[in-house]
Known about the structure:
This protein has 255 residues and is α/β, with parallel strands linked by helices. Helices cover 47% and strands 15% of the residues.
Amino acid sequence: MAYAWRWTRSLLFAGQAYAMMALMAVFFTPWAMVDRRGAFAGVHTWCRYVRWTARWMIGLHSEVRGEVPTGEVMIAAKHQSFFDIIILVSELPRPKFVMKQELNRAPILGWYARRIGCVPVDRGRRGRAIRDMLARVKSGEQEPGQLIIYPQGTRVEPGAKRDYKVGTGALYQEMDTRCIPVACNVGVFWPRRRIYRAPGTAVVEFLEPIPPGLPLRAFMAQLEDAVEGGSDRLMAEAGFELPAPASAAEPGPKS
């Protein structure tokens, strides 16, 4: 009975959140059409609204740890569900994402993403996608802000493993700027494809910056260690039981 009630509350929460997205989009669009500040105001307002309603409707609190960057910087973040995007956008003053090309066609989201300066890439052409991504970031059309990239390229469920894409390293070298790794445990409470939302505290944590100038392999190794280690720590803190390493899970030969 308790689970059914939480599932119903999750459904109501999701419905009102998307309804409010449409209402706020209509309200902020006239301002956003003439001034990008209107687009940022719209996305900030909606994301903060979702965090507020999640707290009292479904018991899902959210917390941000570490120093929130405000200048021109690259952010490489763990991506587990839509809620980590919501938390990041609600905190960063000028967020812009490296996003998949398909989101350009999404109603409301696509238009607002373009207005705040997101960088679309075609993931089906990996080499071309990296070159296009770097060209867009270097172009004068991109305004200063916090450029967010997901090194694994997609949402990854808690405990699952997925390779880190070399495009993150190419972007780091091309921008020649510090990179802020970001860890999270959001997927423990807000699954990537299910309506049900669990109560608890979802955490997004800004970790120690990686300085510019590292060789590609050294950067990728340091980034993965920071993001995966930080995310594992936060998930364990939330009570999620991480899978045992393969070497520990597989029994050794019998004597």
